[in-house]
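Reply to dn_fold:

You asked what the input looked like. This is it:
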Amino acid sequence: MQHGKMLLVAMLCLIGSGTLAQDVKTTYKAIYQLNSDDDKVIRATLRNIKNALDDPRLANQIVIELVAHGGGINLYRKNQPYEPQLKELAAKGVLLVECENTLKERRVTKDELFPFILYTPSGNGELIIKQQEGWSYIHP
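and this is what came back:
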């Protein structure tokens, strides 16, 4: 009889924990890397991010950061055609980040980039830290 009561309690706990698990909101975190100045790669990266934001399974549950370094700096240059897409992503909460090492190496000033861009000392360092923190890494 005692064994039956313990089994019943265990089953109720499992059923209850399943219900609770469904009620807990998960937050997903993804970091995208862009180190190419190829227009096709840039547009594919922006499209991939938009697709993730539009995925109903991730709706209101995802934080996305796009880290550009190397050739990827072209995405954030004012003289490039990507401002509308970037503003749309930023409005949806996407963190748009540029590597300061790339700025130094390529002698680019922050004034040459869109004013809504964020900065990190090292693009590679940002990727390493975010992955250690459990962020999904995506390099289209």
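The chain has five helices and five strands.
Hope that clears it up.
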